[in-house]
Design goal:
Helix content is 0%, strand content 53%. The protein has strands at residues 14-19, 25-29, 33-38, 41-47, 52-58, 62-67, 72-75. It is globular.
């Protein structure tokens, strides 16, 4: 295998990754952010109150996040 991209926008550890069906990648970690990526470029940053430890996409583009703040959030593109 060959590395095809290195994504470097996070400022601390990354703990969670989730692919959306259209190729958008969500990443989250201890910098309390969720980054959305397309083709290796960060297209959005979502702010959290705690470390992000889990991410999952639902059909329709809804992103679920969970972490150290003991809250599950559902994110939808408005």
């Amino acid at each position: 295998m060959k590395c095809t991209a290195t994504l470097k926008e996070h400022t601390d550890h990354v703990y969670a990754l989730a692919w959306r069906s259209d190729g958008v990648l969500a990443s989250g970690g201890s910098d309390k952010t969720i980054k959305l990526w397309r083709d290796g470029v960060c297209i959005a940053t979502l702010r959290e109150e705690g470390w992000v430890q889990a991410l999952a996409w639902r059909s329709g583009g809804v992103l679920a996040s969970a972490g150290t703040n003991r809250i599950i959030k559902l994110w939808r593109n408005e």
